[in-house]
Amino acid sequence: MKNLRYSILFLCIGLIASAFTGQPVRSTKAEPAKVNWEMLRDVTFKKKWYPEESIYMLYPTFGPAVQKLEGKEITIKGYLIPFDVESNVFFLSAFPNSQCFFCGGGGPESVMGLKMKSPGKRFKTDEVQTFKGTLKLNAADIYELNYILQNAEIHYGE
Questions:
Q1: Which of 76, 55, 77, 63 is nearest to 137 (CA)?
Q2: Can you tell me the distance from the alpha carbon of 40 to that of 69, in angstroms, rounded to the nearest whole number?
């Protein structure tokens, strides 16, 4: 109870100080990094043999600019591609469905998996949206995309 009173007291002092100085009270939470698809092109690929599937696949080596984004909250705008609506699996692409990585036109760096924070949202193919979430770089799991946006949700900011 004592801590609650102190918290309320400090909040009031901050608001009063803000009123006298004309300066807003700033949030300590950092804004998400605004990322575009061009930035995610800082990756190279080499063919690697995967014996469990008896196939060569492209293995990514992420460049320094992309590595700095690992684990950070980001926003990114792209085209939605519903992959398995019933299982809530969606991809976000730099290109519309007809030009995406799976249909030609783009490389593996031009698409990311969305792990939705709140499942159940429905999207239309090629719907353009901006998402916010935590970027995960994937070079090990061949059953996932190289870029994964965890806790993804629609971002309504700029």
A1: 63
A2: 10
Digit-coded pLDDT (tens) for 106-148: 788 999 999 999 877 888 889 999 999 999 999 999 999 999 9
What are the backbone angles phi and psi of residue 47, rounded to the nearest 5°?
Answer: -75, 135
**CATH value at residue 146:** 2.40.50
Alpha helix ranges (H) inside 32-74: 64-67
Task: Tally the domains of the chain.
Answer: 1
Under 8 Å CB-to-CB from 87, ≥6 apart: which residues? Answer: none
Scanning the structure block, which residue is given the tokens 């102190």? 6
pLDDT bucket at 85, cuts 50 / 70 / 90: confident
HEC-encoded secondary structure of 72-94: CEEEEEEEEEEEEHHHCEEEEEC
Cβ(48)–Cβ(70) under 8 Å?
no
Structural domain contains residue 7: no
- What is the pTM (predicted TM-score) of this model? 0.77
Residue 82 structural domain = 29-154
Amino acid identity of 37?
W
